[in-house]
């Protein structure tokens, strides 16, 4: 006869009268990464009787979709980032550690970080993505990507410094180089960056200079494929391209970058563009998760997982978000977008809860709510499956959606006020050149 | 007979019929530095018919009195800094250049910057102050000071990282070292920093950790002299010290630092304090202005100027603010505080205007409105000459005064909302560890 006794701490004690085996320990769940996926998993387990450890190399959760607004001096970093501890401070079953993962030992079920070894019963790997330069890693120094706050403030500094140098120099050719901006990559990030830089040049800072006319700045968007926003229906891609050109962005399609250095870029078709500011929005690859786990990955380094989000032979491990490669019900790859990561995190939490209760749960089922991208300050394109929007209504929807998903009441209120002011007054107080660009 | 003709541009044309000499050129005024002094001079000349050039190595004006709040994660950089171009964008007679000064040639009346040579008829030198380490410049790497935004975010990162490391490590002695903070220097900056770190540890982040108790953090304020806030009346200095101790700060008076490295500090009396976070608030020295001008300076490098704020033999040059050494009407040195810099800038502008009109103006007359310093989140000391306040009323006055002097409506509104929220909710959203501390 087996008796189950509830201990005051909430853990279950299983007593086998015959063998006198006493097993009393809460399950240990370790979550690597506090992005959309990792946090969704942590919150999904907030009522669970587990020992939860969330590990991230940074102390904040970053709302990445708005990162381009920090890069173009519309928002400040603190308005799109929230300390992880603050988000989880009321969840008593979680410990947060600011550590960098060095490796994972699947056999001993241990995570090795810089200063610690942490054992787990269940592991959720949600370590996200990094920039990819298609083998030309030396381009990273010249052309920063946009994945972290440090990236965003670096890009902001380069954009603003370019206008400052243009104002200061005497040589006309140099002035032109400083007033030329190149964005490589026509996905959502590249489109949003290009549109925002143009808006900055033509509306925000246009009266701030005496020797140059900022609105004469040249913004070039270079895309190797045939359309911008390739994940959108063709009609919306075309609308986006036309709108970018109306804003003043030069869109070069079917052009790959062959050279990228301090002078500018060269394109496959032979064209050269002299620029002091080249930004990389052309490729991402997964974190090192596949290497740590020693499991198969795709060309971008994403871990192949099954419909339960487990890698082969280890159903105590879940790999989610941008670092996972999941095939959805429709046979297509689940995209590396925030809502997908969130849903995967929620699935991992539900799966773990079920396992703890001795139940089973169904496979992961991605619900695609659609796709949005802004272009400048008044327009966007939105593909919501049955509804397609473009222009101002899409832009409004984009803002409401993103505002809603921001974590924390305070941030929503502050960002709302900021956006309202920015929209009405063109007042970009976040236009600071800081840190290593301080001369 | 002399005829004076007003040209449409506003400049005066003097025609001497006999000699046919035509002199038609607006006076060139160059201002080095866009801090309180430089900006006050620029704004004082906003209606003047001059060619004004403002040069600063950064693109923003910094409200330094609130810098310690960025360092202790209460405010974000963008809330206390405003782009110089934005501040001056409506002033049509001014050109802003983001350049670093390399030298000044008094004979040819030229300023040499990294990329330009700029001639002047009148020069206002307002280049401020830097940290001084009393000959131990190697301490700068271990113990950052607080003069720039980069300083503030560096200090913020070190403070927050110390708590993160304390949470992660296993060794008890190391944990203690991470939970010990040392502030060197008992002036206003040191007092404000020490009080704010204590508040952060005991109120703001106290619930965010599981393995450590942040309120057990040790904050030590070390002062070589016999009192904190030496520029205040003795009674207020004593009140400040007592209030710091009530907050939990350990105040060591009459103790100079003899060693400062990654392990902590050693004091002259023999005491050693192990700490991973030592902050320097103990000394400032002037910018290189005296060297550029080749004129006499005091021990801190400040340029000796007369009651008109001119260095010897050059009444077309004005040196103002923290980089100047001025004796006031009362025979005492005018202090290196924001209101003094502002008044000196206004005087320089008036003096230049008078000279252009062929008038004379009286000497600089410093009006000392008093002295304020906060201690933690609810108290301050205020010496307003006839009135002395301490406690909550002083704190309220401090906030109102600083809020009022912030430049720009938007910043005032945002900072007010921020402070209100921080005070009510203990919600410090600016608690980010960014940039080179990202691991």
Question: Can you lay out the helices and strands and say which pair or pack?
Answer:
Two copies of one chain form a homodimer.
Chain A (H helix, E strand, L loop, with lengths): L2 E4 L5 E5 L4 E3 L3 E6 L3 H9 L5 E7 L3 E3 L4 H5 L9 E3 H5 L5 E5 L2 E5 L4 E4 L3 E3 L2 E4 L3 E3 L7 H4 L6 H20 L3 H7 L1 E5 L3 H17 L13 E5 L11 H14 L1 E4 L4 E5 L2 E4 L4 E3 L2 E4 L3 E3 L2 H5 L9 E2 L12 E3 L4 E2 L12 H20 L13 E5 L3 E6 L2 E5 H14 L3 H17 L14
Helix pairs in contact in A: 1-10, 5-6
CATH top level label of the largest domain in chain A: Alpha Beta
In the CATH hierarchy, what is the architecture of the largest domain in chain A at level 2? Answer: 3-Layer(bba) Sandwich
* Major sheet of chain A: 5 strands, parallel
Q: Classify the secondary structure makeup of chain A into a structural class.
A: alpha/beta
Classify the fold: give the CATH topology of the largest domain in chain A. FAD/NAD(P)-binding domain
Q: Count the strands of chain A?
A: 27
Q: Please state the CA-atom Rg of chain A, rounded to the nearest Å.
A: 24 Å
Helix content range of the residues of chain A, please?
25-40%
- What percent of residues of chain A are in strands? 25-35%
How far apart are the first and last residues' alpha carbons of chain A, in Å? 77 Å
Query: How many separate helices of chain A?
Result: 12
Major interchain interface with per-chain residue totals: A-B, 61 and 61 residues
Multimerization state: homodimer
Count structural domains of chain A: 2
């Amino acid at each position: 006869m087996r008796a189950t006794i509830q201990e005051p701490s909430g853990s279950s004690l299983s007593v086998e009268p015959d063998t006198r085996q006493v097993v009393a320990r809460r399950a240990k769940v370790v979550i690597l990464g506090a992005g959309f996926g990792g946090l969704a998993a942590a919150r999904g387990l907030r009522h669970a009787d587990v020992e939860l450890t969330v590990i991230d190399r940074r102390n904040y959760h970053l709302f990445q979709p708005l990162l381009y607004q920090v890069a173009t001096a519309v928002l400040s970093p603190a308005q799109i980032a929230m300390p992880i501890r603050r988000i989880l401070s009321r969840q008593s079953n979680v410990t947060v550690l600011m550590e960098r993962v060095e490796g994972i030992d699947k056999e001993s079920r241990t995570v090795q970080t810089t200063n610690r070894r942490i054992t787990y019963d269940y592991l959720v790997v949600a370590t996200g993505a990094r920039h990819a330069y298609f083998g030309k890693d030396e381009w990273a120094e010249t052309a920063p990507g946009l994945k972290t706050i440090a990236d965003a403030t670096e890009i902001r500094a380069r954009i603003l410094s370019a206008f400052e140098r243009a104002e200061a120099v005497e040589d006309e050719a140099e002035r032109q180089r400083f007033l030329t901006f190149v964005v490589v990559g026509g996905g959502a990030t590249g489109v949003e960056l290009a549109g925002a830089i143009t808006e900055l040049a033509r509306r925000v800072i246009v009266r701030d200079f005496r020797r140059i006319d900022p609105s004469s700045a040249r913004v070039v968007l270079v895309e190797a494929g045939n359309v911008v926003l390739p994940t959108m229906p063709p009609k919306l891609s075309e609308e986006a391209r036309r709108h970018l050109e109306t804003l003043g962005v030069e869109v070069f399609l079917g052009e790959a970058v062959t050279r990228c250095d301090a002078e500018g870029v060269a394109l496959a078709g032979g064209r050269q563009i002299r620029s002091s500011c080249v930004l990389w929005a052309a490729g991402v690859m997964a974190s090192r998760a596949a290497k740590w786990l020693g499991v198969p990955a795709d060309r971008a380094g994403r871990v192949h997982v099954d419909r339960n989000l487990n890698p082969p032979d280890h159903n105590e491990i879940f790999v989610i978000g941008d670092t996972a490669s999941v095939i959805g019900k429709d046979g297509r790859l689940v995209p590396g977008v925030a809502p997908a990561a969130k849903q995967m995190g929620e699935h991992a939490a539900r799966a773990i809860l079920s396992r703890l209760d001795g139940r089973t749960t169904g496979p992961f089922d991605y619900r695609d709510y659609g796709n949005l991208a802004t272009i400048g300050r008044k327009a966007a394109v939105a593909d919501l499956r049955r509804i397609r929007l473009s222009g101002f209504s899409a832009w409004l929807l984009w803002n409401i959606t993103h505002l809603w998903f921001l974590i924390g009441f305070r941030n929503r209120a502050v960002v709302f006020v900021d956006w309202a002011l920015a929209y009405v007054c063109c007042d970009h107080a976040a236009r600071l050149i800081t840190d290593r660009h301080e001369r």
